[in-house]
Design a protein that fits this description.
This protein is of the alpha/beta class. The protein folds into two domains: about 260 residues, QueA-like, CATH 3.40.1780; about 80 residues, QueA-like (Thrombin, subunit H, Beta Barrel). The relative contact order is 0.20.
Length: about 375
């Protein structure tokens, strides 16, 4: 029975004027605004991202997702001459990818010719090896994707961004390294090399993890009860060296600051793994709320791991590693907004969102940021 506030997906709705959905990034990156939400009091303060160092202490460690967005939007031609659009979602094998296909008659066994930017066949083909629900297809390419996608692909932007992006690198973080995401870890888009250097000079540490973001991250949750949502699985990695440095920073008195919800999921997955919790993590929030994991201490060291995570964080979840969260403003009814609400409290988060709307903050991927301490 859905009786408690936060149980229903509709409890994560809020009103947002369409004019506040950012269509372009600000320049420079750290000129974006920063809303500081105090977790203890619920109070908010309005600053700019370049002021981030004012809220951090020497020894604090920023942990960021270093994934790089693939130019995963492609165009191809059917044997009949019809043009189709492909959006690569997730690697499923050496040369096999799950994808969304826009176009009719793309059946199993069909071979498509991938086109270059001039609209001509580029010598790469994609064969449909399986069909899924609606537009989902499993494609096998004739050559490794990494060898040609930078030349043939286009950067996919979220559907709420209607303007073209002059510089595709503005949809990448300045520290992006391994390619594999269908969307950017947007909390990190605000950092500049100069800001990272200035934070380092203040004694703030910096570490990276990897989680390849899937497009399902941004979809509204489509069920009535939050606990009934089945979150998608995403590939993540925390190296042994990075885990050691993060744990040492905490033991030395530093706060672990997750840059973005994807990083928070990696760190919390790593903390659960260190506690001996393996396999699916889908129901951890519900078990936490029910007290079934009360034997786990408030802080857990993070353990190195590599592989998929299906950790769904929503109110009731007990954070084991993350002490502070740096994040953008998220879509209503999204699992991302639920994660932020789990960290700071649903009412406090929604009140902060109302304050951001009143102050004309810019929302979503190219929008402003929030620091929760």
């Amino acid at each position: 029975m859905l009786t408690s506030p936060g149980d229903r997906v509709t409890d994560y709705d809020y009103d947002l004027p369409e004019a506040l959905i950012a269509q372009r990034p600000v320049e420079p990156r750290d000129a974006s605004r920063l809303l500081h939400l105090d977790r203890a009091s619920g109070s908010v303060a309005h600053r700019h991202f370049r002021d981030l160092g004012d809220f951090l202490r020497p020894g604090d460690i920023l942990v960021a997702n270093d994934t790089r967005v693939l130019p995963a939007r492609l165009f191809a031609r059917k044997p009949t001459g019809g043009r189709v659009e492909l959006l690569l979602l997730e690697r499923r094998g050496e040369d096999t990818w799950a994808a969304l296909v826009g176009g009719r008659g793309v059946a199993e066994g069909l071979t498509l010719a991938v086109l270059d930017h001039a609209g001509q066949p580029a010598g790469v083909t994609a064969t449909v090896v399986a069909t899924g629900p609606e537009a989902q297809r499993l494609l096998r390419f004739s050559a490794p994707v990494e060898t040609w996608i930078e030349a043939l692909g286009y950067t996919p932007l979220p559907p709420y961004i209607h303007e073209t992006l002059d510089d595709p690198e503005r949809y990448q973080t300045v520290y992006a390294r391994p390619a594999g995401s269908a969307a950017a870890p947007t909390a990190g888009l605000h950092f500049t090399p100069d800001l990272l250097l200035a934070l380092r000079q203040r004694g703030v540490l910096f570490e990276t993890v990897t989680l390849h973001v899937g497009l399902d991250t941004f979809k509204p949750v489509a069920v009535e009860a939050v606990g009934d949502h089945v979150i998608h699985s995403e590939w993540a990695r925390l190296s042994a060296d990075a885990a050691q440095r993060i744990n040492e920073a905490h033991l030395a008195g530093g706060r672990i600051v997750a840059v973005g919800t994807t990083t928070a999921r990696v760190l919390e997955t790593a903390a659960l793994r260190s506690a001996g919790i393996t396999g699916s993590l889908q129901t951890i929030s519900a078990r936490d709320a029910a007290g079934e994991t009360s034997n786990i201490c408030p802080w857990r060291p993070v353990a190195a791991f590599e592989g998929p995570t299906d950790l769904f964080i929503y109110p009731g979840y007990r954070f084991r590693a993350v002490a502070a969260l740096l994040t953008n403003f998220h879509l209503p009814r999204s699992s991302l907004l639920m994660l932020v609400s789990a960290f700071a409290g649903r009412e406090a988060v929604l009140a902060a969102y109302r304050a951001a709307v009143a102050e004309r903050y810019r929302f979503y991927s190219f929008g402003d940021a929030m620091l929760i301490l």
